[in-house]
2-oxoglutarate-dependent ethylene/succinate-forming enzyme
Amino acid sequence: MSIPIIDLHHINTLERLEDCDALPQIIEAIKHVSMSSGFFYVINHGISTELLQKQFTVAKNLMDLPEPIKEKYAINEGFRGFDKINQQRSDINAKADLKEGFYCGKNYPADHPYVLAKYHTFIPSQWPTELPDTEPTCQAYIAALEQLAEVIMQLLAMSLNLDKHYFEPFFQSPMISLRLLKYPPHPKDADENKFGVGEHTDWGALTILAQDQWGGLEVKMPSGEWVAAPPVEGSFIINLGDMIPRWTNDRYYSNPHRVINNLSQNNSRYSMAFFYEPDFLAQIEPIESVIEKGEQPHYQCCTAGEHLLWRYDQAYQAV
């Protein structure tokens, strides 16, 4: 089994979504993959190669900063800034993750109610003054991927026989995090409990992942089989986060995945994960029309913020 590729040619903007003759086939493909792997590639997605390459350059420049400068912008209570190797444990049954990264997010206005309330992910990002290109590049990239995420959410809604705008009220002020990641070469003497990032599911609605040429990402299918998700030129990998099974009463999957950087010929591996989460106060519960007759909801209602904070606490307090 492999991760499918979905071509978004002609529908990579909301305005052109229903002008595509292939829309029924795309919706059916998303429905099928959401009920199996929860992972798929998208190509012809509308994000320019120039912007993607510029963002990778920013990621590498950030990771190359001296440690004292990274310490100056160390991750804060809003999860903005640099985190270190072994600072997170994604799989509580494994060792801490062999990766380092930089968290940033969408620039909301200083007078936004969630910024004033200091809600999680609404605390302003830490932009290193040593690399002045960081903020404008990241903001351009975040804006482009937010548009792509809106398209994917509309396609997901239609795949569930819902109005294409169904999810929009949940994303009036989305929690958005961009995580730029560097994985050092996997140690030759590492044991079976050491990973670049351990087995985990993502916590929000969607993740849009860009990865470099090396690979190392693996996806766990419902059968228990681990399947490689290697780089595909010109693509992003989309995976569904935990909000999706909560909304669909487990009809759609948020599949476990992991990274082992053992394919890079002793080079570091870079990836960039864009996390698209609902509004902090959005109430997440199974969609009534999706629940089969006689079926009970599998999840109690919670806010997106409550769920996300719980998952962050698990991952960082386990170290």
Remarks:
- The longest helix spans residues 134-159.
- The mean pLDDT is 93.
